[in-house]
Each structure stands twice: as structure tokens, then as C-alpha cells.
Amino acid sequence: MSYEMLLSCGTTNGLLDKFGQGNTCLGMFIAVEIFSHLENLSKPHQERKQIVSRALAPAETVKCAFTDLGREEKFDDIFERCNSYVEELDLEPVKTQRIRKPPKKYFSEANCHVETDARKYFHNQFYEARDTAVVQTGVQFQQSLMEQYKKIGTILIPGEVSKVVDNYLEIDSDSLKLQVSII
After folding, report:
1. Of 42, 74, 89, 91, which is most buried by a Cβ count within 10 Å?
2. Which phi-psi region, left, alpha or beta, contains residue 47 (left: φ > 0; alpha: ψ -120 to 50)?
3. Which among 103, 101, 104 has a CA at the least distance from the CA of 114?
């Protein structure tokens, strides 16, 4: 047997072990729940012609969906679906992560808080991932430049030039008024 084939067998066995664990299954359930909402943001941004105000509408939808994910019942539902899936496929049950103690020379003897219940541990992980997604979508879509782009878009569609154009030195507001009136 060649070295490459042994390496491939070892990698495959490692993946099989990971996919046979309930923790991996729960991680995938959580990821699908969060990323399925984020996928709604990518479709409008891939169009060739896009109006900023139309691109901001899916961001509000995603924000509402993430608010809905904040309910306690939502995580309980995900956890129960995962457990039934784990039992159906005869995978290892969901369990807490193994705790590694840091070396004593770096830390004191004090005990740190460790979750002993898998539901509580992954509950915290789920809300940490959800909160990260909420904050990052807020950062991307609540910028002041977005508001300026939206105002510029409202100039070009109805044809009314506003003072927002004065912020851009490369745009001559008088010639823009003329050009917009011709369109």
C-alpha cells in the first residue's frame, strides 16, 4: 500500500469519526439555522443593477429573522431535532467539550466555571454565533455611507438633485441637474 493511500485512509477515518459525533451534527444544525438567513443577503448583491434601498430591504428581513432566533424555544427546537437525528442514525450523543486545564505556571489554582450540561453549553455557543451574526450584519448595513448612497439613488430615480451631491467634488451639481432632466 502506498503512502498516499494510507494518508487518504487516515484522513477518511478521521472525518468519519468527526461526522459520527453528535456535537458535529449539532454544530451543523446551528450553522444551517444561521447561514440560511445570511444567504438572503447575498442574492440581491449579486445582481448587476441594484438600488441601495432595495439591497437594504433583505437586511431588515434578516434582522427580523435573527430576532426570531433569539427565542428560547428556537434553540430547544434545534437541540431536539438534532437529538432525534442522532438517535435515528445511531451517532454518539451530544456531550460537553472536554475541558483542558492550563498549565499551573501560567494560572492560579482557582476553579473556573465549566458547563456540565451539553444543552447549556451549546445554548451559549448558539447565542454567541447568533449575536456575532447580528452585530456584523448591523455593522455592514448601518453605515453612514449607506445612507448617502441611498440619497444618491433617490436623486437619480426621480430626477431631483439634493445637497448630498455637494459632498462629492467630482460631481458638478448644475450639469447633473441638466443631465437628470434630459433622462
Report:
1. 91
2. beta
3. 101
Say which amino acid occupies 81: R
pTM: 0.65
Res 162: pLDDT = 66
Query: Three-state SS string across the chain, please?
Result: CCHHHHHHHHHHHHHHHHHCEHHHHHHHHHHHHHHHHHHHHHHHHCCCCCCHHHHHHHHHHHHHHHHHHCCHHHHHHHHHHHHHHHHHHCCECCCCCCCCCCCCCCCCCCCCCCCCCHHHHHHHHHHHHHHHHHHHHHHHHCCHHHHHHHHHHHHHCCCCCCHHHHHCCCCCHHHHHHHHHHC
d(CA 150, CA 88): 50
* Tens-digit pLDDT profile for residues 46-97: 665 666 666 677 777 888 888 888 888 999 999 999 999 889 988 888 887 7
pLDDT of residue 81: 93
CA distance 44 to 57: 9
β-pair partners for 92: 21
Position 127 confidence tier, pLDDT thresholds 50, 70, 90: very high
Query: CA angle, corner 54, sides to 67 and 169, nearest 5?
Result: 120
